[in-house]
Queue: 2 jobs
Job 1
Amino acid sequence: MARHSHGEVPMIDVQVRGRSDRGRVREANEDHYFIGVLRKLVEVQDTNLEVRDAVRELSKLDAYLLVVADGVGGVAGGRRASQSAIFSLATFIGRTAACHYDPNVQQENEFLERLEHALQHAHAVVRSLSTPGRGPATTLTMAMIIDRRAYIAHVGDSRAYVLSRGRLRQITQDQTMAALLEDEGVDVRNAPRLANTLASAVGAQEMTPAIGLLDLTPGDVLLLCTDGQTKHVSDTEIAEMLASDPDPEPVCNRLVDAALAGGGTDNVTVVVARADG
Amino acid sequence: MIQKKVCMVGVYATGKTSLVRQFVHAKFSDKYLSTVGVKIDRKPVQVGGQDVNLLLWDLEGRDGVQDIQTSYLRGAAGVIYVADGTRRETVTQVFELRELVQGAVGAVPEVLALNKVDLADQWIVTSADRANLAQVPWHTFDTSAKTGDGVEAAFQWLATAMVKSP
C-alpha cells in the first residue's frame, strides 16, 4: 500500500529478502547478510491534541538497512570478520540514524558523514580481532533506503546493482588490485589472481569506503551480492532473474541456485529489494 | 567546520567524475566508468584561513539535459557545470542545464568547466560559443582532468564564492 511522508511526497514500499549459501566447494560459509527495518515509534499514551493523526504518522516512517559481507582470512576468521562488521555497523546505525527519517540538507550531509563513521567503526572492530595487517578482513556493501533514496556504502568486491526500466547497472566498483592497477593503466590480463586480491577491505590495512546514493522509482530492484554470485552468473542472467518475479524471495532462490549450478566455487549471498509504488 | 554541497552537473562522459578524482586524489584514469546515481566525495579546503569541507556530489550524466534528476540538486551551495570541449553539443547544452539547475536550487555560485583542454587541438568551441558563454554570470575555467590544468583553481574559486555568498 502506498504511504506518504511529510509534504505528501509518495513513499515507496520496499520488499526485501536475502539468502546465503556455503556453495559446493567451501567447507563453511564466511558470508553474512542483514536486513533490518528502522522504525520510528511515537507512542501516544494520552493527549488532548487535535492533531493525533499527525503524531501517529511519525510512527510510520521506515528506513531499510541492507548489508552483505564476505569474510576473508581463514574460515573462522573470515566468518567472524563479516559477522562482526555487520553487527557493529548495524548497531552504530541503529543508535545514530534516528533523526534521519525526514532529512533536510544539513541532516543529510551529517548522515553521509555518519555513514563513513559507521564503516570506520566496523573497520576498527574487525581490526581488533587480530594482528593488524594479518587479517581477518571482510568486504561490505550496504544500502540504507530512506523514503525513495538509497544510500550506498561499499568496501571490497561485493557489489550493488540496480535494475531500472529493464536495464541492469552496477552501482559499485570492485576494489581489487586488478581494478586498481587497470585504473593506473597497467595491463593485468596475465595476472588473474589480482582480480581476487582485495585492495580495500574492512579490517585490512587499506579501507577506502565509496559512498553514493540513488533515487529509486517504483519497480526498481536493488541487488546486493557477494562475488560468489557474480563469478558464476552473468549480468544478463542476473537482469533476467531480477525481472522474473515481483516477489524477491523466489528471485533470491533463482540467483543463488544459478550460482550453485554454475559451479558454486565460493560462498554466495544475495539481498534483493524491490521498490513498489 | 563549514560544509558546502557542490553538485557536478553535465551530460554523459564530459569528465565530471575525473575532475573530482583529480581534485580529491590527484589521479586520472583513461578507463571510462559511468556513474550510477550520485558519487559522493569530500575535500577540505581553506578560504581566507577558514576551513571549508566541500561535499562533492558527482551526478550521473545522462544523454539529454532533461534526464538529469533534479532531486539530487536540493541544497546545493554551488554548481560546477562540465562540458567537453571536443563535443560542441555539450557546450551548447550547458545553457539548458543551467535553466534546469537554477529552477531547482535558485541563484548559487556557478563555475563552468570547459574540460579536456589537454585535447585543445580537437576542441570545437567557436568564438561565437565563447562569446555566448561569456554572457552568463558563471566563472569559466578551461580544465583538464588528465593533466590537472585549471582543476584546483576551479574548485577553489567556487569554494571562495560560496563562503562569500549570503
Job 2
Amino acid sequence: MISMTPRKDISMQRTVLTPVFSVLLTLCVGAGIFAVLGYDPSAALYQFFVAPLSRPDQVADLFVKACPLIIIATGLAFCYRANVWNIGAEGQIVMGAVCAGGVALFFPAIPDLLMMPAMIIAAMAGGMALAFIPGILKTRFNTNEILVSLMLTYVAALFIDWLVRGPWRDPESFGFPLTKSYGDAALIQRVELPGIGTIGQLHWGVVAALLLAVAAYFVMSKTVFGFQVKVMGDAPRAGRFSGFNPARTTLGVLCLSGACAGVAGMVEVSANMGQLQPEVSFGYGFTAIIVAFLARLNPLGVIMAGLVVALAELGGDRAQMALGMPKVVTGLFTGILLFLLLAGETFNRYHVQINWPRFDQLKSGQLKSDEEG
Amino acid sequence: MTHAHSAISAETAPVLEAVGITKSFGDFRANDAVSFAIKPGEIHALLGENGAGKSTFVKLVYGLLQPDAGQFFWHGKPLTISGPQQARQLGIGMVFQHFSLFESLSVAENIQLALPAGEVLTSLSARIRDMSDAYGLAVDPDAYVYDLSVGQQQRVEVMRCLLQNPSLLIMDEPTSVLTPQETNQLFAVLRRFADKGMAVLFISHKLDEIRALTSRATVLRRGRNVGTMDTKGKSNRQLAELMVGSEVADINRHKEPGKLADTPPVCRITKLQRPKSTAFAVALDDISFSANAGEILAIAGISGNGQDELMAALSGEWQPPTGDVIVLEGKDISHFDPAARRRAGVGVVPEERNGHAAVPSMRLSDNALLTHHSLGQTVRHGVIDHAATKAIAAQIIQAFDVRVPNDDPMAAALSGGNLQKFVVGREILKSPRLLVVAQPTWGVDVGAAVSIRTAMLDLAANGSAVIMISQDLEEVFAIADKIAVLHDGRLSDVMPADQVTAEQIGLLMGGDDARRGASR
Amino acid sequence: MMDALILTVILTSIPLILAATGELIAERSGVLNLGVEGMMLMGAVAAFAITSLSGNPYLGVMAAAAAGAMTAAIFAVFTLGLATNQVATGLALTIFGTGLSGLVGAPFVGGTVDGLQAVSIPVLSDLPVLGGLLFQLDLLAYGAFVMLALVAWFLNKSRAGLILRAVGNNHDSAHALGYSVLRVRCAAVIFGGLMAGLAGAYLPLVLTPHWSEGMTAGRGWIALALVVFASWMPSRILIGALLFGGITIIQLVGQARGWEMPSQFLSMLPYLATIAVLVLISRDRNFALMRAPAHLGRIFIGTR
C-alpha cells in the first residue's frame, strides 16, 4: 500500500535529476522489451542512441530533427501550463504548412525579401485559426478541448490530402500527389559558415527555433503574461481574483501554440521538402507533447528535451533500416518516457512510501494531517 | 504502557474509553497520550482550537485512522477499530463537519451506502419516513441531495447515523452552518437521544454552545488532554484559557460600537441585482447599503445565502451590467475589473485562501504579485520586478508576524493561520480605502484570529471602511460597528451593533422578513 | 442494398459500443482514461496475432480482452497508485499502445485471418427484415449488446453499481464512509481496458481482416466522445454508436452513388459530427453539472 505526503518545498536538485533518471530508466525498459520481442537489445540501443551521433554533421542533423519539436513544444508549454490541453498540434502544423504553401505557390511575385515574412505570417495564421476553434468552443460552450482539437487533426490531414491530390496538384508530377516546387525565396537555406561550408542539413530554421525558445523562456518567467498563464493553470479562481480573464487566457495560449505549430509546419516544408505533399507532420504534433512534458513545461528545457526526443526519432529511422523495426517503435520509447516522467513528477511533489501491511496491525501509514485537526 | 481503566460496574461502564491514544503524522504529534471516557447518556464536548487534534481523535474513533499507540475500550472491552464499516457495526455514528454526502444521489441512496449490504431500497425508504416522524427530523427519502439546504443535508447525515442504532454519536462542529434557531432544534434532538441512553461526543470551539448543551468537556491543546471537567461550573473565559493555555487578550476596540457620528460613506452600493448563473447559485435581489469611513460593517448570514455572489460583485470578478451600482468615493467602479478596483483603492480577501486568495503552489513573493501587478511598483512595461515582489512579501511577513520556514516559501508550506495573516496583511498594507473580507478567521488559531481582527480594527480607525462577511456571530459582535443580515440574496436593513441582539440576528439569518428586521 | 447498408452501420457501431461501455464505467468511477485508442490497438494486435498463430478466432478474442486489461493496468498503476495526472497519463498510454502494438504486429503485416463467423440465432433469425439484420451477427456483436444491458442494470440496480457511482460523485465522502476508492477505480479502469481490447479485436476479426499500424484510425477518441454524448448513461450509447456508424457509411454511399463531393470531405464527416455533438451536449451547464461524475479526473489521495 502506497502512501503519499506532500513535500513542503521543491528542491532544484530533484527537479533536474528526475527527468534524467526517467530517461535512463526508459532506456532500460525499452531494452527489455526489445529483448523479449527477439531483437538484440544492445544493437538496438546502439542504433537508437549512439550511431546517430558519431559525426559532426550527424549532430547537426540532430538539431535539424529537433527543430520542429522545439518550436511546437515551446507553444505547447504555454498551453499546458495554463491547463489547456491542445492535442491538435498535428493538425495545426498541417494548416500552417498549407497557408504558407498557398503564399509560396500562388503569390510568386512577392519580392524575395518579403516572401519569408509573408509565409511566416500565413503559417501563424493557419495554425492559429485551427487552434482557435477548440478555444472558442471551450470558452463559449464549455466543450472539451482535447477531443475537439484531436478531431480536427483528422480533418486537417484529409484537407491537405484533398488539396495535394486535387486542386493544388502539380500537373507535371506524373500523377504523384505533389504540388509544384517552391521558388527559391520560399525555401529555407542551409547555414553556411565561412571557411566550413554547410554542416549536414543545418538550416536557419534551427537558429530561429533556438531563439524562439529563449525568448519564450523570458516571457514565461519574467512577464505578467507568463505569470498569468501559470496562475490560471494552477488556480484559475485566484487568476480571476487577480484580474486575469479566463477566456482570454485560454484563447491566447491556444492561438500562441497554434501559431508555433503552424510555423513549424512551414519550416519543415521550406527547409526539407520544398513542396507540399499529403504527409507534412510526421507525428511531430504528438511527439512535441512528450517534449513539452520532458521539459517540464519550461521553454528553456524544451531545447534539451527536443534534442533527446529527436535522438530517439533518428534512432528509430536507423533501427528501421538496420534491424527491420517498424517506425512506430519510437512511440514505444516516448510513451514509456512520458509514463516515467509523470511518475517522477509525483516523486518530486510527494514523499512516497510503500508500506507492506502487517498482519498484527491493519492499515498503517504516515500522512499529513488536515489543518482543522 | 498499560493503564488501569475506569471502574467496570455494569451501570456506569463507559461507552467509549480512550487510554493513551497517540497519533503522529511525520514529526507532528496530532494526539499525544489522550485519555478520557464517555458515559452512556452523556453529552460530552471535545473542545480545542483549530489544530488541537479534535478531528484527528474522532477519525481514530471512527476507524479512518489507526493510532500509533494506546487503546480504545468499547463498553469496557479493548478493541481495535479497523475501519468505518466496523465502527458503524459497533454502534458508532459520525456526522462530519464537511458532510460526507453524495450530491447526485437520492437521500435514500445516500443512507443505503452507510448501511451494510442487504437492505432493499423500498423498505429503507419506509424506515426513513418512520424515523423522520419519530424524531422530528423532516427528511424526504426520494429527494436528491443537491436540492437540499445545508440544514436539511445535516439532517440526512444524522438520520444516516440513527438508522444503525448507535450507542455513540459523534458530531464534528455541526453548528457552524446553522442559524441560532436551527441550533436550538438540533440541541433539543440531541438531548432526546441522550435521554434514551445514547452518548454524544460534540466537537466545537463555540463556548456558549458547549456550556448550554453539554455536561462534561475534554479540552485538547496541542494534541494533549489538558483536562476533563464538568462544563456547568466554568466560564467562557476559563474554558478559552484552557484551550489556548495562556491569558486571552481582549481585542482593543478603540471605541464603543455604535457611538460614532455619521461618517461619510466610502463605498455606496445601490440596487445590486444579480440573476442566478447556475441552478445552484443564489440570485442577489436589490441590495443597497453603504460602508462608511472608520466603520466595520458586518454582513452576517449562513453561507449559501448569496455571500459568494456578493463577494464576486464587490471584488469585480462579476460586474453588474448597468452602471452606478457600486460607487467608491464618488467614482462609479461598477464596470471595473478586479485589477482596476485595486487601483481605485479596494482591497479584497476572499473566503477561500487555498486557490482563491492565494496560489498554494507559488511562493509568497508571487502571491504578493497576485494583487500588486496592476499597481505599478512591481511591473514595468509588462516585465516583472522580482526584487520588488520579494520586498513586498518580506514587508507583509514582518508587519503581520507571519511564521515562515524560510525567506520566500510556497504558500502551501504555511499553516492556515499564517497564510491568512499574509493574505489579510497583503491587502491592509496597501492602505485600501475599502477593505472587503469574507470569513476572516475561519479555520485559524486563536492567536492569528486576534491579530487579524486587531488589524481590521486598526485599519478602520485610520479612516478606511471595512465590509466583513462572516457567519461567526461571536466574531460579528466582537468587532462590528454595524450589522446587516444576508438571507436568500436579500440584505436586511443595516443596524448599529449595540442595538441588536444575537437572537434578532438569528431570526433574520433564518429568514424572518429581512426588510422589516430593524423595526423590532 | 439497404439491408447491406444497415448491416454495415450495425457492424461499424460494435467497436464503438464496446469501447464506450467500458470507458463509461471507468468515468462513472471518476477516472478519465484517454488511452482508449492505445488499448484498442493492443486488443487488435493481440486478436490478430493469436488468431493467426492458433487458427481460432475465439482465442484471439480472449487474448484481446487480456491485452486490453493489462494495458489498462499500466494506466491504473500510474494514475491510481502514483496519483499522476490522468490526462497526460492517458495520452502516454495512447502513444505507448500505438507503438507497442506496431512493434508486436510487425511480423503480421500483410497477412490475413479467418475471423469470427456469423452465428444465427435459431427462430429469431428467420424473422423477416429484422432476422437478417439483428440475429445473424457474430458472437462478439451479441456480446456487445449483452454487455451494454448488463452495465445498465449494474449501474442502476446493484449495490456495487451504487458504490461506483458514489465514488465518482464524491471520493472524499466515499472514503469517509469506509469504501476503498482506489480499489473501486482500479476495477473500473481494468474493466474499461478489457472492453477496449474487445473493441479492438472486432476490427481485424470482423470488419477488415488484416493488421496495420494504427488501424483504429481514431475510433478510440470517438468512443470517448460517445461517452460524453451519452451523458454517461448506458442507454444512450447505443443510439450514439449507431449514429456514428451511420455517418461513417455516408462516405460509402456517396462513392457508390457517384456524388460530386471529394471523398476526403465525406471522410471528414464523422470527425466534424463528433465536434458538433460535443458542442451541443456541453452547452447546457446545468445538465452537465448534474450528469457528469463530479469527481471525474480528480486525483484522490487517501489518508490512513
